[in-house]
Amino acid sequence: MAKIVTMGEIMLRLSTPGYQRFIQADSFDVNYGGGEANVAVSLANFGHSTYFVSKVPENPIGESAVTALRKYNVNCDFIARGGERLGIYYLEPGASMRASNVVYDRAHSSMAEAKEEDFDFDTVFEGADWFHLSGITPAISDGAAYLTELALKAAKEKGVTISMDFNYRKKLWSYEKANKVMTNLMQYVDVCIGSKEDAKYILGLTPVTTEKTGIEAEDYIYRDIFQQMMDRFGLKCIASTLRESYSASDNSWSACIYDGKEFYHSRKYEMRIVDRVGGGDSFAAGLICGLIEGKDIRESLEFAVAASALKHTIPGDVNLVTRREVENLMGGDASGRVQR
Amino acid sequence: MAKIVTMGEIMLRLSTPGYQRFIQADSFDVNYGGGEANVAVSLANFGHSTYFVSKVPENPIGESAVTALRKYNVNCDFIARGGERLGIYYLEPGASMRASNVVYDRAHSSMAEAKEEDFDFDTVFEGADWFHLSGITPAISDGAAYLTELALKAAKEKGVTISMDFNYRKKLWSYEKANKVMTNLMQYVDVCIGSKEDAKYILGLTPVTTEKTGIEAEDYIYRDIFQQMMDRFGLKCIASTLRESYSASDNSWSACIYDGKEFYHSRKYEMRIVDRVGGGDSFAAGLICGLIEGKDIRESLEFAVAASALKHTIPGDVNLVTRREVENLMGGDASGRVQR
Amino acid sequence: MAKIVTMGEIMLRLSTPGYQRFIQADSFDVNYGGGEANVAVSLANFGHSTYFVSKVPENPIGESAVTALRKYNVNCDFIARGGERLGIYYLEPGASMRASNVVYDRAHSSMAEAKEEDFDFDTVFEGADWFHLSGITPAISDGAAYLTELALKAAKEKGVTISMDFNYRKKLWSYEKANKVMTNLMQYVDVCIGSKEDAKYILGLTPVTTEKTGIEAEDYIYRDIFQQMMDRFGLKCIASTLRESYSASDNSWSACIYDGKEFYHSRKYEMRIVDRVGGGDSFAAGLICGLIEGKDIRESLEFAVAASALKHTIPGDVNLVTRREVENLMGGDASGRVQR
Amino acid sequence: MAKIVTMGEIMLRLSTPGYQRFIQADSFDVNYGGGEANVAVSLANFGHSTYFVSKVPENPIGESAVTALRKYNVNCDFIARGGERLGIYYLEPGASMRASNVVYDRAHSSMAEAKEEDFDFDTVFEGADWFHLSGITPAISDGAAYLTELALKAAKEKGVTISMDFNYRKKLWSYEKANKVMTNLMQYVDVCIGSKEDAKYILGLTPVTTEKTGIEAEDYIYRDIFQQMMDRFGLKCIASTLRESYSASDNSWSACIYDGKEFYHSRKYEMRIVDRVGGGDSFAAGLICGLIEGKDIRESLEFAVAASALKHTIPGDVNLVTRREVENLMGGDASGRVQR
Amino acid sequence: MAKIVTMGEIMLRLSTPGYQRFIQADSFDVNYGGGEANVAVSLANFGHSTYFVSKVPENPIGESAVTALRKYNVNCDFIARGGERLGIYYLEPGASMRASNVVYDRAHSSMAEAKEEDFDFDTVFEGADWFHLSGITPAISDGAAYLTELALKAAKEKGVTISMDFNYRKKLWSYEKANKVMTNLMQYVDVCIGSKEDAKYILGLTPVTTEKTGIEAEDYIYRDIFQQMMDRFGLKCIASTLRESYSASDNSWSACIYDGKEFYHSRKYEMRIVDRVGGGDSFAAGLICGLIEGKDIRESLEFAVAASALKHTIPGDVNLVTRREVENLMGGDASGRVQR
Amino acid sequence: MAKIVTMGEIMLRLSTPGYQRFIQADSFDVNYGGGEANVAVSLANFGHSTYFVSKVPENPIGESAVTALRKYNVNCDFIARGGERLGIYYLEPGASMRASNVVYDRAHSSMAEAKEEDFDFDTVFEGADWFHLSGITPAISDGAAYLTELALKAAKEKGVTISMDFNYRKKLWSYEKANKVMTNLMQYVDVCIGSKEDAKYILGLTPVTTEKTGIEAEDYIYRDIFQQMMDRFGLKCIASTLRESYSASDNSWSACIYDGKEFYHSRKYEMRIVDRVGGGDSFAAGLICGLIEGKDIRESLEFAVAASALKHTIPGDVNLVTRREVENLMGGDASGRVQR
């Protein structure tokens, strides 16, 4: 059981039930989540000692967010209280050719306006094995970007392995700013998760062009862009998920990984989607879980892909699957047959 | 922003939640809708000044129906009050090979028993650009058929463009009666929406036979039957949707149009169905929207097909999509990817 | 209208709504069902005079179970009262590659601990035409196994036709015990429903091996295993459903039957699953319905397959379809088109 | 266990949840009920063999109404199928000073348009002990009034005891018509339930005036008006409930009875109301239950008042209490203490 | 039908169902409301031509807020689009001795940050008869306070009658600031609604002390404080509601008014509370309705009190009662008896 | 922050929504609770370090129970896994004169069949300040009674203060058995909570008789019976709640306490009940909270009564109030006024 730290914003998610549009809804389903919080729940679920670092307002909405994490066994001792509000995102789940619609209302959140004195990173990273964060945290405010670097530095000094999931959000910051901030932060990163688009927009790298098509093309491009990232940032490994979005209801899902030596593309799953939010986060958690337990990159990747494929069948942001369920799926049984 | 008038019955729809059968239901979902009312909401949604002409009982159920339209910006000034009851239809949404089940309880409705004095058509059509109705309105009662002709005459005198969506309902009237009434009303119609079955049963035309199959056969037959309709009724254009019903859960959706010169078949969408009621009405609204704004028939048709494909992903009778969402889908993105 | 008797346990089913995991649920959907009870409801629905023999606790939960059957016209005069509790099964419906999860809590139920004096089998089978049970009833306890044989003997003496649906549940008993008990009970059975796995584990037969694949292989194996069963147990006919489980959301569904002379494989349906529990029971009911009404094995099988395909579109354990709906589907219309 | 027959209309009740107004409701709670149907369920609940005579449309809504009665053990063999529609009533439950709002949509119902040939009263009343109906049935249409008299005659000829609950509904018929029809029907009645207002409007009697107030005044007036009814119609006994409506949320509830010799006023209950619909019907059922079992008028009345007080705590039209619960309440325990 | 303008913020209200605490809620009930918006709906409901002036973000949440008003017939032509977010308030409805809990998250809302150029007050007040606002609007931001004065000036110049409901919110601003801003705005006000606490904290007046108790004391104090307000600000009339809060579930409700000549205290209602939010707003609307229609202050006050008592029985912020329902209650019938 | 240990069974509670009877329910509300578990949540809520000792089955239902406690900050490290099932209780909440109905299905639960080796009491009580349990735990099985004594011994040896809430359940064991077991266990108890009925039935004491009535009588009897308990068992203090059950909807609530010197009767609260389950447990928690923090018995009792009065307004078994809310209520404000 490793000690894993994640840091980021936890938000209130308000989603419409039954494929309703916002304008039809008389009630919203309530969930609490956010990129790094979702990773934390997944890792706690897989049995690791997981800590979430954040700040929430000192009111019942803030407490509800904390409770939602503690319920799933995430250690909340490093969540500060104070500030103005809990960030919100409104979600209208899509269906068929109608995409899910997300409306962010996260400005001025307690985490976006958190200060250095809210966190004691020395204590946070004491004895930690892994620190994970995503490109969303530095994007939410200049203060959060500053805090992110402080945390990364503190973790680095303690010899903690660091993973970064790019998660570029164009509604949060411009390419230029993302590029500047993230390129700097890359110096601390050991394991990186990011798509070719992330590499292009965040890191300013140029993906190779090819006449190949389909998966073959994807592999060709990813080998190249991962190599570029390796060359430039000296990472342990890089991974990306690959989603084919046939529609809002049906996707395929696989992933690829590169460690400087081997490039590996996982099994591909065909998915009927119940809730796709948090799919990428559950992949990051699965990958960390594999790597921290000493699995090789192939096995880690397959674990991550299977775990995150299952996430798409679960309502809410967080991935509530057991290790055994993931392993069963990896073992080949995607038939959905009942055991009784 | 054009002034568009529709006229028809608005009903209370009572549907079972969660694919329940009627016999299982402890609650019914409540929606208000009806062919022309659905068209009105769509057109109001696209920004046009839309009026609905109807009659509802002077009780809270009638008021609720009016409110449901006003909510979506339909002008309700020409909805009369009085009569006995609001028509009802019970809906049991289907799934897979089980078809949706509709039970009508619409006899004796306020609209079916409305009188000439309930409406002042001169005022209604003052300054109007377009008048739309469907074959359901004249079908609900002799009185409604009479009122329909009165309205058509009044509109015609004011130079209003008139569209008619056949919508043959065999539970409401016989072929003979439909044929007699509708053939007469065709003299007022400029734009017509109807399937080859409508043409056969309502207009008494004989679709050509062919050894072709699939879409090729459909196009062959529609070219011919549309030409017959053109020859006989001198229309501006005729359109029909084409639904392939693989099951109650999955359909394909496209449409064709003919203006006497060009026959055009739209792009085809594969749909996972959330709610198929009102699909045809949203197509009519999309087509009117395109034509009234001066788009050519191709663009009008593609707008109408995209709009109505999206309708199938929205619960309830009415199509709550924005113009931008329709244009995005027309622009090619049916992938259902989230923007964030 | 034949008199049909079924005997078994009725349980409270607690299932999570909206694809939630157990850990997420704030409410459970309540249904009452069980193998033979589900068969009884189907047969009552098709118009037969159907009796259910069981025992429930003398408390409101037991009464609710009885009420759930009576609602659908099953005669409950032979349901005894007493004992400790109503058995429960918790159900987490699956989606996509996530299988449904069933947690049984049925030990110590009133039916598992029922005694000989709870039932007067002479009265029960007076004038009965058919007695159906499944391999679940003898599996729930030694007492229930004993009662099962008592019932079978009594039925046999009255000349009642007897059908048995194997329904092997490895969570309830071992192969050895199942084999011993069931092999003995087979002496009473006329019509048998069971898969090749049931034949192997319950009856100890060895399915033939083949290099064929797909349906061809299935047919080859079933012909052989059915012949083995015929040879050994002298049955009137044997049938099995054939489910291809692409995922928890999508299955194909067909069935085969053998009467010693003809082996017949039914039409195959592609299903989007709303609720797969009770699919096999609704097949058994359909088959009994066909055979008891004197249909030949082909027609009986097609009726059974169509009926049970429809079951998969209905929430809950029981199959709430009309005879006409089944016949429409058999007649070829699986398009799910609305009639209106 | 006596054989009891009731006859009347069963309706679909659509009510708003959570004290919503009609205009706010996105769903309606579904119940099926009606004066005599509610009486039938109560009596079946108390263990009597109870039959309901009615007519419902041959569609799933009609079947659902029948199922709702069968669920609670009412014999539905004499419910005819056919006609146009199931009557509906919309209910907006009140709270505090806001009264419940009922909108009827029951014209043209199958029962209102039922014919003589729909029922075989000789079979219906064969072996019957009691026939109950209310003043609603003759009010719904001339045809229903005619059928009511046919049924009363047939029952009288078989020596069946007859009870009538006046239930004057001014929205259904005028005083004049009610008076004419009901005065004639009174010749068949043995036991009568009606308020002083019913006596005044339906029977044309003049209640005495008094300077007393409160319960004392009520008793004074009821003694007198009951005596007038006795004198004129020669009844076995007459009873009335007495409701003090402090608000839509809080009422008191008692009743009085007279058998020509003794006038008796029951215990009074203070009630927090969950659902007051069917309160009077559950009183009628309780009274019949007591009288048919040979209890004296005091005990019968106390049973009826306790049963119907409990009804006010149960959602829906029908009274789902056990005999033991009623007897406990009669025994004095209105404290609502949990037993455990 | 008078033209009435209100101006203020409309917020998203998220409330827990079934008396849940925030920490328990898996869904929030969705309503849209706010002081002045609630007044607008009430007045539209009573048949007046009512306009709401505000600003909402240009996203589906903003549109949903507008739609919620339009549904109830409020003219939304003067609602600007833009800015950052829609204000939110979280509501946990109380029960018994547990008070309702409100968490505001309204900072940075579109209305709080609206600019002069968002509104064309000349057009807004063209032909207007009445302008109503509350002390909440100037409290939400300096900008909003500035806009409030602009609006008041524009209205005054057009000769519009102006009403102000103090509604002091100590969570929004300090006494000092409230006092400074509001004292200045009082120069424009004709009709004032405010409690003695408002008078003390907002206007800096000193309520008289008395040894009287109960209603007598209230009347004594209100006569005095109203006179002070009259003397200082030269108003047409002043009114205040008087709530006795026995618990979160039960309150009494009355009001008093003074026009410089007569002091009048209304009838008092005992209320079981369904939803108390918006009670004061519905009182303001009722008072404006009475005064604008030329009723005297007594009748206006009784109308306002009855209307707002009824509001407490309706879920949500807005008062969905008809004029007739209010008049019935004024006429004395608070018994909650059903009419049928 | 004290370390507090509780030990007992946690059950799944299945309750009907909206005052439905069991027979009406299509869904059950899901909560997890039990006497000592409820106490644990309350104490965790007040900020103490609280541990729950129990055993749950190793399946998702067992995990859900654990999660429900962890959500509210109860330490679950001492909850063993294994055994057959989670105990269940079905709850039908009462209203007005209809009492809540509880159906237990808790036999054979994992906790009832837990073994000595499931718990390491030395570790459990290491550093503990307080151990609380109730008379339910020894009642559920002989094994549980044995474990209870083991735990009490271990706690006593570590010098932990021990409190016992009698909670006699006549459905679980006889007076004789309860008396024998509990009298023995009393040797370990320091603080006792129990009614005069508990004292009579469990301890075999004889309450004094008196001609006084009401609260005066209660105080007289409780002084006496508490003194008897003091004399016999040498306790630190004894307390009892006093519930006047006007109906299932309305109760009064107070409590009394005695420490050998002073007898004190608390303030009395009038309550509208949302959910009365867990009322007594929340009282126990409040009392422990006060005493462990060194408050005197008066203040501890007032805190306990206020906390538990608030519990009655919260759905579910557990008391989700903050310390500040309790203190506000103690401070006198039971008016339910909103702060905003």
Structure description:
Chains A, B, C, D, E, F: InterPro entries: Carb_kinase_PfkB-like (IPR052700), PfkB_dom (IPR011611), Ribokinase-like (IPR029056). Chains A, B, C, D, E, F: Belongs to the carbohydrate kinase PfkB family. Chains A, B, C, D, E, F: Residues 1-207, 257-316 form the Carbohydrate kinase PfkB domain. Chains A, B, C, D, E, F: GO terms for molecular function: kinase activity. Chains A, B, C, D, E, F: This is 2-dehydro-3-deoxygluconokinase. 6 copies of one chain form a homohexamer. With 340 residues, chain A is an alpha/beta fold. Chain A has a single domain (3-323), classed as 3-Layer(aba) Sandwich (UDP-N-acetylmuramoyl-L-alanine:D-glutamate ligase), CATH 3.40.1190. Chain A is built from 11 helices and 14 strands. In chain A, strands 1, 4, 5, 8, 9, 10, 11, 12, 13 and 14 form a 10-stranded mixed sheet that branches. In chain A, β4, α2 (60-71) and β5 form a beta-alpha-beta unit. The relative contact order of chain A is 0.13. Chain A binds chain E through residues 14, 17, 21-23, 25-30, 59-61, 63-64, 67, 84-86, 88, 90, 92, 101, 103, 105, 107-108, and chain E through 14, 17, 21-23, 25-30, 59-61, 63-64, 67, 84-86, 88, 90, 92, 101, 103, 105, 107-108.
